[in-house]
Design a protein that fits this description.
Number of helices: 9
Strand order of the largest sheet: 1-16-15-2-3-4-5-7
Distance between the termini: 14 Å
CATH class: Alpha Beta
Order of helices and strands: HEHEHEHHEHEEEEEHEHEHEEEEE
Largest sheet: 8 strands, mixed
Number of strands: 16
Bound molecules: zinc ion
Length: 340
């Protein structure tokens, strides 16, 4: 898809410094950009409208594109044509083709995944996740976080195949010291893209009740909100990051007291974007959640099984502030997006 076509299809989430840009605005001072697109009315946090007509009006100095998946679940092949649901959709090679096309138009791109790469098809039963990690490495994934199914072959099973990932596997709220996972899991990374610093950290779900205890062994689950607050603070302060992304496998929303991405965002300052997983939630566009300090965090997820590829474009002005945030979900295998 050409960039102009993408712009027509996508949803404009913010303009000016309404949402994700606010955290940037705290750091960078400078005059308002002349000719910037009018912000979406302040306070209209849950009414993010699709202002596709305005997308072309933005003049950005630089665009950074964030692409993401979650819960790909060993679905390397597309769903069969006779599948009851999702017939013919997905497939890792078509995803790779789409990512390549997008990168051609958007050279400053991050490719991320929010966990549960493992389990779901015979590819996992036979190769234990190694093929998935290899192919994701070839595709140029920048980072993924740990999902609960990454424990399905135990800690040794994970350690056997983890070297196939030539990208970092993130989780800030599991204590993995002294376990076979330790060499392969990091809390966060900092990536410089288009001269801007992106802090990316991972959060995992409570293991008790979700993963059998013998599979997670001595890995210890720690309070995700506490660790997210610490991460956001240290990435923004000590590591001087301009934009903070949380890869979360907590789940998008639960009606009970279990922590989820929406609750996390409402209790934590400083995160710009939560890319979630676990609940297999298809979302047309990210949801903006108000943070305790009155800013907001975008929360998104891209379904499951590699059916969708999520995309968020951040347009930065010449002062390094976000002038516009655009979002789109590609359905892989759907005719308008990418051919086989
Ligand atoms: Zn999961």
């Amino acid at each position: 898809m050409k960039r102009s076509e993408f712009l027509k299809k996508c949803v404009v989430l913010t303009a000016g410094s309404l949402i994700a840009g606010q955290s940037m605005a705290r750091q960078i001072t400078g005059p308002a950009v002349p000719g910037a697109v009018e912000p979406v009315a302040a306070g209209k946090l849950d009414g993010l409208s699709g202002l596709s007509g305005q997308a072309d009006a933005a003049t950005a100095a630089e665009t950074v594109t964030i692409l993401y998946t979650n819960d790909t679940h060993a679905r390397l092949d597309p769903f069969p044509d006779n599948a009851v649901e999702y017939a013919g959709l997905g497939g890792i090679s078509r995803r790779a083709t789409l990512v390549k096309k997008i990168r051609r138009g958007s050279p400053h791109t991050l490719l991320l995944d929010a966990g549960d790469v493992f389990q779901g098809t015979p590819w996992f039963n036979v190769f234990g996740g190694e093929k998935d990690l290899k192919l994701m490495s070839q595709m140029g994934y920048d980072a993924i976080c740990l999902g609960n199914h990454e424990f399905d072959n135990g800690l040794d099973g994970f350690a056997d195949v983890a070297p196939a990932a030539d990208f970092p596997i993130l989780c800030a709220n599991y204590r993995v010291d002294g376990t076979p996972m330790a060499p392969f899991v990091e809390p966060f990374i900092v990536r410089e893209v288009a001269g801007l610093r992106f802090g990316i950290f991972g959060l995992g779900i409570r293991l008790d009740g979700v993963v059998r205890p013998e599979l997670y062994g001595d890995v210890e689950y720690l309070d995700p909100v506490r660790w997210a607050r610490g991460m956001a603070e240290s990435l923004r302060g000590y590591h001087r990051c301009d934009y903070i992304i949380c890869l979360s496998h907590l789940g998008y929303h639960y009606d009970d007291e279990r922590i989820d991405d929406r609750k996390l965002a409402s209790q934590t300052n400083g995160i710009d974007l939560v890319i979630g997983g676990h609940t297999h939630t298809f979302m047309d566009q990210p949801e903006a959640i108000r943070t305790p300090d009155g800013n907001s965090t975008l929360v998104t997820q891209a379904g499951h099984s590699g059916i969708n590829l999520g995309r968020v474009d951040l347009q930065f002005d010449e002062f390094g502030r976000i002038s516009q945030t655009l979002a789109h979900q590609y359905t892989i295998g759907a005719r308008d997006h990418v051919a086989g």
